[in-house]
Design brief:
single chain; alpha+beta; 2 domains; five-stranded mixed β-sheet; three-stranded antiparallel β-sheet; 12 helices
């Protein structure tokens, strides 16, 4: 509806012409800077605080899963962290640009004439000409900064939509792959193969649309019929738009792509997406490594592995050791004659090995009841682990299963008799999958836990 004034001064409403816009973009454009600042301000710093909570949630649950479920959990964490960091940094940058724009607008309102080039006595003729050409009119600069901020804001929203869709589609494909894997003996391998096939199929649809659409153009240029090929392309597009929310993504993407240049836009688009997906992986690596910036040339990682690690002593473990699920003892100084040793059970590593090493379990599954279940668990892990104290073997088949709510782990616990041991240093050495080689997830892993025994403290 629109309003007109009659000769009697009465304002009357007349029907709007068909196809007219409901929103006045010129009037709405005057408020977009405020809306952008409001949204960026609310989200910028909030998003940067979320990854720490996501990491705590992931680390607390990662140890409890294996196979395709472990990959799904890690994928969800990677996508969520990448989304938070990429959007957080983008919104902070947008706030900085908008803040600069606000400052320029304030200067323009205070000094309408802009830069008075003749009143810069310390600037010579050459410098004045160079900077005048570089900067231009202050109003033009304000418009350019305004356009940059709006473009960055729209690009950020587009990246957010793409990452969210990528995460949801990836999890959907993982669920489908897990369901398919249930029908095979090696479910994990079958699920991974199925997931790879589904991803290749999805990429094939996108590539097929591009290649066949180009083929239609070439055939039409040569005057050859293209009706059948066009139907194929339309069918692929329908499938693609079913999997990808193009009604939501395409308006932003195509507007930016057509106005900024296709090649430059796509380059920035994919670089940001790759960065967003990699940053979560970097955080995982950083949580396991002592430091990403490792310049230790004397006390190397190899030296520390034969020394002491805080994650192996319960009294020294801290928040940064949450991903280090190592065998552990109470402290580096032991005064009691019974040394408690806790060996964690890690499903992602132990379950595949149990299917090979524990013949008493059906496909590595402990389906026994009562005390038989505890005995079967101890017997199985005793085949996986080898424990020695000062070179003498320790029998761990007599260890008992334990649930450590304080550590968020399950495993075996046992007490090693230190009676008759001399005061001083003693070395507890554990080997997981002895003879398993030096490569792959099932490779042999060794853990040295030195401690100092002081019975005189009793």
């Amino acid at each position: 509806m629109s309003q007109i004034e009659t000769t009697e001064g009465i304002v009357a409403e007349t029907p709007s012409p068909a196809g007219s816009r409901r929103i006045s973009f010129e009037r709405l454009r005057e408020r977009t800077d405020e809306l952008e600042l409001l949204i960026s301000g609310l989200l910028a710093f909030a998003l940067l605080t979320v990854p720490a909570h996501l990491f705590d949630a992931w680390a607390g649950n990662e140890i409890h899963v294996d196979g395709i479920f472990g990959y799904a959990l890690q994928f969800a964490f990677t996508v969520a962290v990448g989304l938070c960091y990429s959007l957080g940094f983008a919104f902070v940058t947008h706030l900085a640009i908008r803040g600069y724009w606000v400052g320029l607008v304030g200067l323009k309102s205070s000094f309408p004439a802009g830069i008075q080039w003749d009143r810069l006595p310390l600037m010579g003729q050459v410098s004045r000409a160079f900077y005048r050409h570089l900067i231009g009119d202050l109003g033009v600069v304000i418009d350019r900064i305004d356009r940059t901020a709006s473009t960055l804001f729209a690009m950020t929203i587009l990246i957010a939509l793409t990452i969210v869709w990528t995460g949801m589609l990836g999890l959907l494909l993982l669920v489908i792959a897990a369901l398919v894997g249930m029908f095979f003996e090696d479910s994990e391998k079958a699920s991974l193969i199925c997931f790879g096939v589904l991803n290749v199929g999805f990429l094939g649809i996108g590539i097929g649309i591009y290649v066949l659409d180009k083929a239609v153009s070439r055939r039409e240029a040569r005057g050859r019929p293209t009706q059948g090929l066009q139907r194929v392309v339309r069918g692929l597009i329908r499938v693609f738009t079913t999997l990808v929310p193009q009604r939501l993504i395409a308006p932003v993407q195509f507007t930016l792509q057509s106005n900024l240049g296709s090649r430059g836009f796509m380059a920035v688009y994919f670089v940001v997406l790759i960065f967003a997906l990699l940053i979560g992986g970097v955080q995982i690596i950083n949580s396991v490594k002592f430091s990403l910036l490792n310049r230790y040339q004397v006390i190397t990682t190899e030296a520390v592995d034969e020394g002491m690690l805080s994650a192996q002593y319960e009294s020294m473990r801290g928040p940064n050791d949450v991903m280090l699920q190592f065998p552990m003892i109470p402290s580096d100084r032991i005064s009691e004659r019974q040394l408690r040793l806790f060996i964690p059970h890690r499903p992602r590593r132990d379950n595949p090995l149990a299917r090979q090493a524990c013949a008493a379990l059906d496909q590595g599954r402990n389906e026994a009841k009562g005390t038989a279940a505890a005995s079967a668990a101890s017997a199985c892990l005793a085949r996986i682990w080898t424990v020695t104290l000062d070179g003498a073997p320790i029998r761990i088949a007599d260890f008992v299963p334990m649930e450590r709510r304080d550590l968020g782990m399950r495993g075996l616990v046992g007490y090693i008799d230190l009676s008759g041991k001399s005061p001083g240093r003693h070395d507890l050495r554990l080997i997981w999958n002895a003879g398993g080689g030096d490569r792959g997830m099932l490779r042999q892993r060794e853990y040295l836990i030195p401690f100092w025994y002081g019975p005189e403290a009793n």
